[in-house]
Design a protein that fits this description.
Layout (H helix, E strand, L loop, with lengths): L2 H22 L3 H23 L8 H32 L7
Helix pairs in contact: 1-2, 2-3
Length: about 100
């Protein structure tokens, strides 16, 4: 079993776990985490597909994964910010004297 096959199997497994988490989780925080797990699975699959032969590695998927990690971090921060704001909107406001 070579490393590309191991990365592919692990990536598909992580994607499936994340998809299951999105479908079954009821809390929005768990859904955000499951979405991140799905993203990591896709990144691993892209890295596995980058190896064309024993000595040649395509650098474009590596650049795509690096860019995807930055975008995923920004998207996660946005989702967590929206989650906090949604939680604050649900709280009753206390009157100040």
């Amino acid at each position: 079993m070579n490393s590309a096959l191991l990365y592919s199997i692990t990536g598909v497994g992580l994607f499936a776990i994340g998809l299951l988490g999105i479908v079954l989780a009821s809390h929005i925080m768990r859904k955000v985490l499951a979405l991140n797990v799905m993203g990591v699975g896709i990144f691993m699959l892209l890295i596995a597909l980058a190896k064309q032969s024993e000595s040649v590695v395509d650098p474009v998927p590596h650049a795509m994964v690096l860019t995807g990690i930055v975008i995923a971090a920004a998207g996660t921060a946005l989702a967590l910010n929206l989650m906090v704001r949604l939680h604050e909107m649900g709280k009753p406001k206390r009157d100040k004297l």
